[in-house]
Amino acid sequence: MNENILQTRQLGKRYGKRWAVKNLNLEVHRGDVFGFLGPNGAGKSTTIRMILSLIKPTIGETELFGYSLKSNRSDALRRVGGIVEKPDFYLYLSAYKNLEIIGALSGGVRRKKILEVLDLVGLTSRAADRVKTYSHGMKQRLGIAQALLSDPELVILDEPTNGLDPQGMKEVRGLIVHLSREQKKTIILSSHLLNEIEIVANRMVIINDGELVVQGDVSKLLDEGEKYVVIQAQPQKKVEAVLQRLKNIIGKYAVKDRTFEVWMDFADIPELNKALVRAGVLVEALIPKRSLEDLFLSMTEHSNEVST
Amino acid sequence: MIRLIYYELIKIFLKKRTYLGFGIVLVIVPLVEVAMKLEGGRFLTVAMRGLSKDFLFFGNIFNGWFVAHQIMNSLWLHIPLLISFVAGDQLAGEATAGTYRLILIRPVSRTRIFISKYITTLIYTVIFVFFLAALSIGLALALLGRGDLIILNRNILLLPESEVAWRFIIAYLLAALTMIAIASISFFFSSFVENAIGPIVATMGLLIVCTVITVMPVEMFEIPKKFLFTRYMDMWQKIFLDPIPWNEVKIGILYMSAWTLAAVLGAWGVFVEKDILS
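YS: structure for the whole thing
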């Protein structure tokens, strides 16, 4: 049986009449890379702030390693490290001094440990430089370093790839995988990017408007939903003829705005492609789609509409 | 706790704004004292407004003690501003910088963090007051020498030199207590806001309002003004009276301590319950 190291029960936060987070029940198991997904403004950061005791919940409670955050805060947070939103530091101090100060709040850390985490995030050569001279990516990496300082079992990373260039994103994702696989850390990774969660997480939750939409294994959630392929190809008649012929691998299909949506197993995409090309169809794109992706996309679009 | 205080001291003393107050004092005090030295006794003559016609003074009454006393008098309204630069930044500065998110997710209670920050504020305040004392008295004595201290109030009081040093020590201790009350009020405002300017403005605003109420000879203010800290801010001056009205000093200490306690408890209450949204 999986050991729950984080559990929230009916967790909620209300600001005035608006619930930022409502009735949230999360379960994070030991060893998980737990994706915490939701569009901007969904309540991810509010939840993480409640889990890390920056915000007091209006209702509900959080348990970390079996300790109630409400009644046993210090024990609950002793094995947790985290980074909340953008990484901010004492800019007038060096990275080393920042980590020394942060370490003191966790009972003190040795110089060796500080150098170890700086090395892990590739900042050893800049350890003595003031943080105000750091780029955003370096601050983000320093943020991860401080989260690892007390050698926590649970690492909570709130949108750690935000504002990074593609290379920086890749490095941070690599680091998360390393922490999970090599250092056996349990990780909660919040993001508004489904593909990011898909790359690194084994379990995930999607929240929207502060409420839980779905929670479970990433692979199961992605597999369970309907899968279909969007075909962008010409001419339409030839495409339809091919689809009729391949009834053994195709469930059903629909035509939408000069594209075809074909319900089928993704493993059969090469066969479909081959058949289309042989029939003289000019294939522009074959795009695998999942209903979860659509669901998330619609939530994201909705939140963008609201924000604009 | 000692470790937390140590790192709070590092944070405070590696910050440039901490030295702003020291820098201002370091400029003003020598400037005034050198100017007084160059002016010679003219300042004293003007200050005595012709009293010298009726009295005969022997010895060096325009001396270092006299100038140090004048400095203490004249700077005293400005020191709270300099103190609140740092005290007001203690909590609000963390919110502004976003570093609350770093420190308040650690397995150390908010109360311990609060205490370490408050003690650091007290240490800064005391160091600052005694820096002012050491500089103004030390430089004044070096420039103008020693002698009896003449106090120009409604009356003229001449304190023998043998009594001056300990009176200054007690006066500065009382001044430190007053500044601790101011720092605590600033600390209180600092717990509310997420901008370090707010506590400075609020502290100075409160100081001005309370001072106006204290000095206004209006009957409806008579009762409230008894409870205002501004009424007791000049309690250190009573140490230079003869005899010293110890009862009044004790009441002043009581009120300043009460204001300090109220401000600290208020700040603590806000800080431990505060949602960190910055």
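YS: worth flagging: Residues 2-49+61-271 of chain B form one domain.
IM: good catch. Also Strands of chain B lie at 149-152, 156-159.
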